[in-house]
Amino acid sequence: MIPPLRPGDKIAIVATARKISLPEIEAAMQAFRSWGLEVVIGNTIGASYNQFAGDDALRLQDLQQMLDDPSIKAIVCARGGYGTTRIIDQVDFTPLQQEPKWLVGFSDVTTLHCHLHTLGLESVHAIMPVLFSREGTAQAIETLRKVLFGEPVTYQAAPHAFNRTGTAQGQLVGGNLSMLHNLSGTRSDIDTRGKILFLEDLDEYLYHLDRMLVHLDRTGKLSHLAGLVVGHMSDMHDNPIPFGKDAYEIIAEHTGKYNYPICYGFPVGHEPDNLALICGRKAKLQVLPEGVVLAYAPASASFLSY
């Protein structure tokens, strides 16, 4: 287990993908300091190489430095975009395996979550500093604080017409659908068998979404799940000749032949209500007619008993 943060601990902010300026993360720095944390700013913040936060070498060096530094107790990725896959195979995660610390982010940072899962390490899929100043994010920020400081979290979601009721138990894995598709067949590819998979995405054409789900299904990633959590599918696009289904209808089509519980509209993804999820931790998903409950197994407790 990763030790909870305590007041006085150091938390680092780095950019593994798209470039970002220091003023863009000011709200996050203020929030972290209000939690009693010391904020360490990586060399990638304010760096620029075309659309990236510095070239690959700088982004790799910045992340590696924070992984190697034992005084850094958590690393938060400033924003997503694109770029983490360009450096992931050069990162030495040995220090993290020897002394685990939290890595935080979502979207393109799904690369890190998946890679860490293959190493047996937990991480946090959560709001990133670039979004702390966005209206409506208070709950997302508070759930991140609770997870980092080891406070228990249990999430509830409203019922949805597409939900399939039931109870699932298993490690929670997943993230951005486009990244999960992109990582297929690589060293960062995750095994989803017996696990609760969660999905979210942004700014995709509906036929792209369908194509990615076909691929995931063909690779067996949808067939042996314990359960499925479908989050925000934001700003989806269609062609002049309509695809004929929206995002949730596409997912429902490709999972209709399976019998595990599924919930739709869970508050995770590219919207202000992006609740912090612990990737790799055992969880219990209850999809009931009256709504959804997602809870984590207490540390060192019998998973099946809670």
Automatic annotation (TrEMBL):
Residues annotated as domain LD-carboxypeptidase N-terminal: 11-126
InterPro entries in alphabetical order: Carboxypeptidase_A_C_sf (IPR027461), Class_I_gatase-like (IPR029062), LdcA_N (IPR027478), Peptidase_S66_N (IPR040449), Peptidase_S66C (IPR040921), S66_fam (IPR003507)
Domain of life: Bacteria
Family in the record: Belongs to the peptidase S66 family.
GO biological process per UniProt: proteolysis
Catalytic residue list: 107 (nucleophile), 200 (charge relay system), 270 (charge relay system)
MF-aspect GO terms: carboxypeptidase activity; serine-type peptidase activity
Domain LD-carboxypeptidase C-terminal as annotated: residue spans: 169-285
Keyword Lyase annotated: no
Entry keyword set: Carboxypeptidase, Hydrolase, Protease, Serine protease
SUPFAM superfamilies: Class I glutamine amidotransferase-like, LD-carboxypeptidase A C-terminal domain-like
Pfam families membership: Peptidase_S66, Peptidase_S66C
Keyword Hydrolase belongs to the record: yes
Protein name, as recorded: LD-carboxypeptidase
